[in-house]
Amino acid sequence: MDDGVKVEPDHVYVIPPNTSIELQDGSLRLVQREPGLHLPIDIFFRSLAQVQGSRAIGVVLSGNASDGSLGVRAIKAECGITFAQDEATARFGGMPRSAIATGAIDYVLTPAEIGKELGRLARHRFLVAATPGVAESETLPDDDGHLKRILTMVQLATKVDFSQYKRTTIQRRVGRRMMVLRLETLADYANYLQRTPAELGELYKDMLISVTSFFRDPETFDALLQQLKPAVEERLLRHEPIRLWVPGCATGEEVYSLAIRVHEFMLDQQCSLRIQIFGTDISEPALDRARQGLYGASIADDVSEQRLRRFFNKVDGGYQISKMIRECCVFARHDLTRDPPFSRLDVVSCRNVLIYLDAKAQRKVLPTFHYALNPTGLLMLGGAESTASASDLFALVDRVHHIYARKAVPTRLVLDLSTGTQQIDSPAATRGEGPAVTDLHKRLDRVIQARYSPDAVVVNSELQIIQFKGHTAPYLDPTPGEANLNLLRMVKESLVVPVRRAVQKASEGEAVIRDSGALVEIDGKQEEVGIEVSPIVLGGAQRYYLIVFTRTTREPYHHATDLPKAKGSGGEESGATDVLLSQRQLSEAREYLRTVREEYEANAEELRAANEEARSANEELQSTNEELGTTKEELQSANEELTTVNEELHNRNREL
Questions:
Q1: Quick one: average pLDDT of 435-456?
Q2: Is residue 576 part of a domain?
Q3: Which end of the chain is more exposed for a tag (fewer CB within 10 A), N or C?
């Protein structure tokens, strides 16, 4: 075959010696053979998975060695379908056997049976709908909530909440299982799950499959280590280990790659420093394999011969990580969206994990990383990931390799990261009749009836009033103009500072906060109004506050002539009381000004961060424009080449 030939049906393509092929934009491109172990099927299968995604199908037939075993894992990770020839019918069973051993093979059949199954799959609605240009929502239409029902069954069986995954990811995983089982609709699959509990385990395994390999993007490791130099020097001075965490580590290739590269870095720097690397995942089978450190011979395609000799031991059928490297790596089960994180880390390497999570889960996970890192810690993400939802927590230090530095700001960590409880998000939501609203009202009524007969309001974490209790008119003074339910805009001016102060203290814990409040004029009387704030947590991260107003009546006076006449010691006592009152009011005014200044500074900092993000986005846009310009030039060059080829063909036709 020639380089760049278009793929057509009913054709068999044979590659020239000492070459491999990759699929690129519907064409087969020849790739010169690299030194070392030659694995052309792995190379082609990986490109097929990358280009075709869930439409990729890989078939491993008779052959020696283990070529294809890495490729079928890549295809399955992209929700494609994989076949292996039954060893009983294979002249050489090495390749089918190695592929089956990966656990990534869907069908083990004879060649004739494989042909029939391929014909059936080609007509399956999921594969047909997964063609380019078809919206993801049309791939598996779900008007009756069957997908939610499926996820609920999986969660009950595995204790893992996959509703936090992106819907498109879930659809591809479920659709893949439907193709394997010859089921056409989500309703059919949901019913099958109820009848066949073992399928819950198969779907669970499919949901956890991720493609990984040794030394992905090796230049990224080099960039990370350059950024890590100051931390290494600091650890050397303190005689402390360097600590790294790889969440979503799957079968451990990323963990061991980091361990090897950090070890090499230490040797280059001529320093001795203990290394601790934590690899976590929610898949126990993947973690078991990672702990063993056993990998097939096909890893030679990703690991250099020098590293294989230095950091691996040759075993039957493949390689095992050396004891020296295994001893600095710890593997443990950890649910990134629920479990507490590690701490005092220098690096978190979370590449290509966030892409599977929805925006809500990402907003919870990124503060977890911020909490886990040292003040000078680094976060490394995948090429399609960013910290956009947590720009206040991380600063970009290497745009090319997606490396971020931890900012020295407080962490918004919420240890209870469950997302199963419905919650109120805005005052408007309270007008509905959802279960969370009803639950909130009932709970508030119980608290009030048990402890108070008060005048009170309920506010959310943004201090928006969502419910009134009792007679609150004496304490609230709505401003003219557009309606605004913000408590600080509605409460009387003298109560602004004590209310703000009490809510701030209540937000720091679960205790009830009491504040002496201030003097408020109510119906012509100066009354001492106290504030009591009770935090209410109704599941999830949202908090509510019950704010109760209490008052004590003082003697009325409106003008200086109405002040009580002092006689003897009584007058002195009255004067002292007025002085104390003035001092307290002055102190409250100063505290209010300090609070306003702090808020102004915080807003200014947020504005600076937003400007940095905008500047960063502008630079990325300029970079994209440059890439588009380069692509345009390449297309023009390709058009010129095609024109030349057409002219040559035309000349040959005339000669013939």
A1: 57
A2: no
A3: C
Q: Within a domain: residue 640? A: no
Task: Note whether 329 and 378 are same-domain residues.
Answer: yes
Residue labelled with tokens 């993801």 = 136
**Average of per-residue pLDDT across 331-344:** 85
- Tell me what pLDDT residue 578 has: 60
Q: How far apart are CA 284 and CA 302, in angstroms?
A: 25
- The answer on pLDDT for 644 being more than 90 is no
- DSSP secondary structure of 408-440: SS-----S-----S----SGGGGGS--HHHHHH
551/517 same-domain check? yes
Could you tell me the CATH number of the domain that includes residue 527? 3.30.450.20
Q: Are residues 386 and 463 in the same domain?
A: no
Q: Is residue 252 in some structural domain?
A: yes
Cβ-based neighbours of 287, under 8 Å, separated by 6 or more = 249, 252, 279, 281, 331, 332, 333
pLDDT tens digit sequence for 106-154:
889 999 999 888 888 887 776 655 555 444 445 565 556 888 889 999 9
Q: What are phi and psi of 84, to 5 degrees?
A: -135, 140
pLDDT over 70 (residue 465):
yes
472, exposed or middle or buried, with CB in 10 Å at 0-12, 13-18, 19+? middle
- Residues 85 and 114: beta-carbon distance below 8 Å: yes
Other beta carbons within 10 angstroms of residue 541's beta carbon come to 15
For the chain, how far is it from start to end, CA to CA, in angstroms? 23
* Strand 27-32 with 5-6, pairing: antiparallel
**Tell me: the pLDDT tens digits for 154-170?**
988 888 888 888 888 88
Alpha carbons within 13 A on the beta-carbon side of 1: 20
Largest Cα span, the chain: 131
Number of domains, the chain: 4
Q: Which is nearest to 24 in space by CA: 60, 58, 50?
A: 50
| Least confident span in 342-351, 432-441, 492-501 | 432-441
Does residue 605 sit in helix, strand or coil? helix
- Taking alpha carbons only, the member of 394, 365, 392, 380 closest to residue 609 is 392
Asked whether 88 and 57 are in contact (CB, 8 A), the reply is: no
d(CA 295, CA 317): 8
Which residues, 6+ apart, have CB-to-CB distance to 248 below 8 Å?
210, 280, 281, 336, 350, 352, 353
To the nearest 10 degrees (0 to 180), the angle between helices 146-158 and 198-208 is 90
**pLDDT over 70 for what percent of the chain?**
81
Q: What is the rounded radius of gyration, in angstroms, for the C-alpha atoms of the chain?
A: 33
Q: 253 with 382, same domain?
A: yes
> Are residues 29 and 4 in contact, defined by beta-carbon separation less than 8 angstroms?
yes
The torsion region of residue 352 among left (phi > 0), alpha (psi -120 to 50) and beta comes to left
Q: Quote the DSSP letter at residue 511.
A: S
d(CA 79, CA 529): 64
List, in sequence order, the alpha helices (H) in 245-358: 253-268, 284-292, 305-311, 323-326
Strand order across the beta sheet in which 312-315 lies: 294-296, 318-321, 312-315
Q: Could you read off the pLDDT of 256-291 as tens digits, one per residue?
A: 999 999 999 999 888 888 899 999 999 888 899 899
| β-sheet bridge partners, residue 281 | 333
